[in-house]
Write a structure and sequence with these properties.
The structure is a single chain. It contains 16 helices and no strands. The chain is an all-alpha fold and 418 residues long. It has one domain: Up-down Bundle (Growth Hormone, Chain: A). It is globular, with a radius of gyration of 20 Å. The two termini are 20 Å apart.
Length: 418
Amino acid sequence: MVEISTKMTGATQIREERAAVGLVSAAHFFSHFYLLVIPFLFLSIQAEMGLSFTQLGLITALYAAGSAGGQFIMGIYVDRHGPRWFLILGLLTVALAYIAMGMATAYWMLLVLGFVAGLGDSVFHPADFSVITTAVQKDRLGRSYAVHAFAGFAGFGAAALVVPFVNSLVNWHATLIILGGVGVFMTAIIYFERHRFEMISARSEKDRSTKSGSVMSDMKKFASMPPILMLFFFYVMVAWAGQGIQQFSPAALPILYGVGEAGVSTAVFGFLFSITVGIVVGGYLADKTTRFDLIASLGYGVSIALLIAVAMVVLPFSLVVAAFALAGFLSGLVMPSRDMLVSAVSPVGAAGKAFGFVNMGFGFGGMVSPVIFGLIMDTGYVPGLYYGTALFMFFAIVTALAAAKYALATDGEPQPAG
């Protein structure tokens, strides 16, 4: 992990913070970018291999399974050994898996490599949040979480533009190889900047090794902490809602509204870009207010109404694009406050494990949602995609209210995990 010395001047400290946050945010950009590469190639892969939407969704479900399964374990090791090599090897694993997927000639290969890519992806959230929580002064944490989240959703937005463009020039095999190569290049940059992560936290080696028990015992301790458990379920609901829009809108919007690839890209990019704008605004809100529950209720409540209107096909497509953009902005508004709440209720010195635990919810949600929405799409009831996302946003509000209530009951103080 990164440690900011108390002997540093204010300007030097801010430069060090920015360098550390910048590197992990760059890794986060690629983590999110790769999550949407396969969905934007669904139709191309389907045309060649004759797969159903359920089968295509299973590729991204296995990616999410690998990510969910590895996150808490990665959090333990990041807390013990620091994030440097985990970040480097994680990004390299994802990039090489995508290159290998580009060479795949059978469906089962895509499934296996999707799972391997997910294992590589499991590193990012625990490592990134451990760095930010340790490196950044408390009064700048909200904005730093916002920068990190902004980079991730900028990766989503970039995927919405880059993947269709590259795929219009070459086939899906070459697209995956090219985009995987870009990840290898980014890995090299992080490798040469690895000195940013050489310093570990002030905890001694003995302290770091004795604070953690076994994986299962640590997981049980976190699961017994009500605010952490509610935040886990919040992440599940958010994943189910957001990934339904992101992964299946490229297939659903042409059916519902008769638009082409350009119209789909505009709507999805607008949704993702607006999330990044919402994150920036939300970062300042997170430094000014602790009312995560109020922000989540407002953001997701309005988004529910917008998505129901999209599902009912009562809007012209220009207003569908606007509805996607507003829903994205309101969703982004929630994220920095969410991360601040996780940080506030995390046991001291265990930020990696805490963020790893709650982000397993995001991975679990991503593992299940492609199957759920793939089945809905295969039934032919396409509006169900957006009714389903609205329902999951409602449950996100419920879990946000519960998490905030439990956090308030502990008076904002983290409960010890060991």
